[in-house]
User: What shape does this take?
Amino acid sequence: MEAVYQQNIDHFMDRINNGEKIEADDWMPDDYREALIRLISMHGISEIMGALPEKEWVPKAPTLHRKLAIMAKVQDEMGHGQLLLRVAEDLMAPLGKNRDDIMKDLFSGRLKFHNVFHMEAPTWGDAGIIAWLVDGAAIISQTMMLGTSYGPYGRALKRICAEEVFHAQHGESIIMALAEGTEEQRELLQDALNRWWTSLLMFFGPKSKNETGHSNQDKNMQYKLRTKTNEQLRQEFLTKYVPRIWSLGLTIPDPTLRFDEEKSEWEYADPDWSEFKKIVTGNGPKSKERLALRVRSYEMNSWVREALGKRPQHI
Amino acid sequence: MSDAEKDFYQVYEVFSKKTDTAPLQYQFSLLAPNRELAFIMAKENFFRREQPADIWVVKRDDIRTMTQEEREGIKNLDKAYRETKGYGYLKKKWRKYEQEQLTEKDIMGGGNS
Amino acid sequence: MESAEYRSSLIELVYQLADDDFILSYRGSEWLGLAPHIEEDVAFSSISQDLMGHAALYYSLLEELGEGDADELTHARSPEKFRNAVLMELPNGPGSYLEEPNYDWAFTVVRNYFYTLAKKVRLHSIKEHSYETLQQIVQKISIEMSYHLMHWETWFDQLMNSTPEARRRMTEAIDVVLKEMKGVFSYGDDGEKIVHLSLIESEEILTRRWKAILSEKVDHPLEIEMSSLNGRNGKHTDHLERALSTLSEVYQSVPSAEW
Assistant: This one.
């Protein structure tokens, strides 16, 4: 038994190191499957939960064009959730689990979603900042995983990243109009930035093991699920966006933020990681409400799934 | 959750053609309780920005796919005898007779020279 | 453009077409993130976007006809100026889209299916004979509309032919929708002129066509009523006012701003 396992794992690691892609029905070590399920179901459910804060602004968007654009954008997020959940579900199938179990795990708090989607989005400025910077952060971490060793995840990400270009421009267009608008509009934008800055830094996760006590970064790199560390991604984000934020005359609410030429990296005030932990474990300002919406959607439509689940399959 | 609710989630694979003459291409999978709903979901889930010429949905259970073993086995097949790359040496041979080897274009037509 | 009477009747009809799609699109957008499953959420959202797009086409025609800016028409018009049928403004169910929604999928399927079928009949009549620019718009809209019809028809057929509970919910929903369905076919107080000027055929003809198609499918008496108010005359329930204040919240927050 052990010899066979060793042979399997050697072959598997050879494939990974040769840059081959692993497919859903291929042999894979349990911890690879577990890491994938954890990573992809969290990514997928975050897209679904991420639709909720932006959805608040869909009917309220200020023009017909903005209404159409944000509706299309939130729809894309749901669509990304669909792709990712499909990938996760195929990995879970051998364990006898399906989408219903993913939802149950979400409701019970076992399955977590991104810190940013636990936060409030009280104004149209927030809709702009979410589309510009939260999506900007998401693009950085998603493109990093395009080369993932797991084939289906890579294919889903490829579809997702292609659409993110539209999202980025949708966000830029909203904030540009606000930045070039009236005094009130600029204030709306600045307030939203102040609200979101810490969450944006948190988005990439803590630096290393020391800060939260556990980290899946190392294993994920060994399995070629990811190629960069949290901190590398955060630095990329800062390099990409800080100059742009400043160029619009906005203030970033961190007086210590500066680029250290010598070390060639950004210095910033480290967010409170115990707060991060509190948020992602379901104690953020909007965690309960958003989860309640999801539960509501599940329960109020349960009769529909029951009705059609019972119909003969081939009609 | 009842069994019926679980049966709601059937896996369907979605294929499409970009144009009438294009070959069928795999897109992605989706969950739906039956073929009709799978079909109406397919368009909006995978073709929000482009208009496909045709869409097919197939229940995954009805597809026979290769196992990992089969896929890896097939990779190692050497069929040089039925591919042009197995006949590269002919180019030199023809040169010896002061002739050019016929190219694919010459053989398949389309070239008048 | 012909007489002033023709012009004002045309404008009246276009408002009715525009506002129906606009308000129903709003109701659809409230479902975002709450549909029976994720795939449907994505598909339904396309329909809501299309409806908003159709409304935008009509509003741009109203712009051309001198009614003012499309964004103003949608974000700064008072409820009594809206011409949508009351059926569109009815909420999806108790609660709001932000808090405690208890939405009814059966009602949504029936409302959308019955409305889309009526829209098909309506657009078909306009295509046959009406104002030319309106005909061109309707031509464009028809293609997407037929997808919507297929979507709602599939849901309708399947839920009607599944469990007793689903059938009960659907039947209840049909009764609710039929009670306001007459308002969809109404052209309001100006109806006679609209029909007389050949902008569209009469309410009776369209209703008959609609019933003929539906009676093949539904084993249920199709008596339509207009039990509350006639939205075509600008009479609405409070639901519309609430919807419009949500729709215009940001637009109104900084008057005269560019967004």
